[in-house]
Amino acid sequence: MQNNPQFVRTDKAITQALISLLKEKPFEKITVQDILDETPVTRSTFYKHYHDKYEIVEKMQEEFFSTQMEIRKAAHENPSMFSQTLIKSSHQTRELMEALLKVHTENVDLRQAMATQSEEYYLASSISPNKKVEAQIFAQAVTAFQISADNTEDFSFEYMHDVFISVMLKLLGLSEDEELRKLLKKKAISKPAPPL
User: Fold this and answer.
1) What is 144-176 written as a DSSP string?
2) DSSP alpha helix (H) spans, the chain
3) CA distance linking residue 31 with residue 105, whole number of Å
4) Are the CB atoms for 115 and 143 separated by under 8 Å?
């Protein structure tokens, strides 16, 4: 039944209604009736799809991460197209991400979920004795970058390298060292795309 085209259209209409409402008011103040008022969906049809508004945002977050995994897979298969793939995906998921960033429930907190995912990735791939702290810093940096990068047309690895190198040099008190900046940038550009 969930693969039925009518079911899918109704599901999308409910989700889109919630996304639209999140532009106007906080999640906590949105009711099922508000969602119904935004769609031609009846209450009984709504409950065939979802138990409540919390289930909608949980599914939205799952869809967001499913899309992110597809991007990562595409990036690994064709690293030269990563920037274009990310920009395209950013445009497709921007509205969804912006809506989810406004929701903070027991099961839905997109920023925290993104950070947790990045932290787990780092921990699994690092052998450093300081990997726990490094993983936390990595996760927060990557998450902040992913969220803010969604608002720029100029997302490329060169852009990403510039941002991270500038921050790192500032943290180390070396922000004025142009020779080191150029060396790091040259090294970063010669490496394959990092999996975010």
Assistant:
1) HHHHHHTT-S--SHHHHHHHHHHHHHHHTT-TT
2) 5-22, 32-38, 43-49, 53-77, 82-100, 110-125, 131-149, 157-171, 178-190
3) 15
4) yes
CA distance 85 to 181: 28
3-state secondary structure of 7: helix
Residue 101 CA: distances (Å) to CA of 57, 66, 110, 141: 11, 16, 6, 17
Place of tokens 């409402």: 21
* Identity at 146, one-letter amino acid code: Q
In 3D, which of 97, 15, 27 has the Cα closest to residue 56? Answer: 15
Q: Which residue's entry shows tokens 């912006």?
A: 98
Counting every residue, how long is the chain?
196
- Digitized pLDDT (tens) for each residue of the chain, 196 residues in all: 567 889 999 999 999 999 999 999 999 999 999 999 999 999 999 999 999 999 999 999 999 988 877 776 776 677 666 556 666 666 678 889 999 999 999 999 999 999 998 899 889 988 999 999 999 998 888 888 778 755 555 556 677 788 889 999 999 999 999 999 999 988 887 765 555 5
Neighbours of 94 (CB within 10 A): 12
Q: pTM of the full predicted structure?
A: 0.78
Token pair of 167 as six digits: 């921050």
**Which of 124, 169, 103, 114 minimizes the C-alpha distance to 144?**
114
Rounded Cα gap, residues 2 and 164, in angstroms: 43
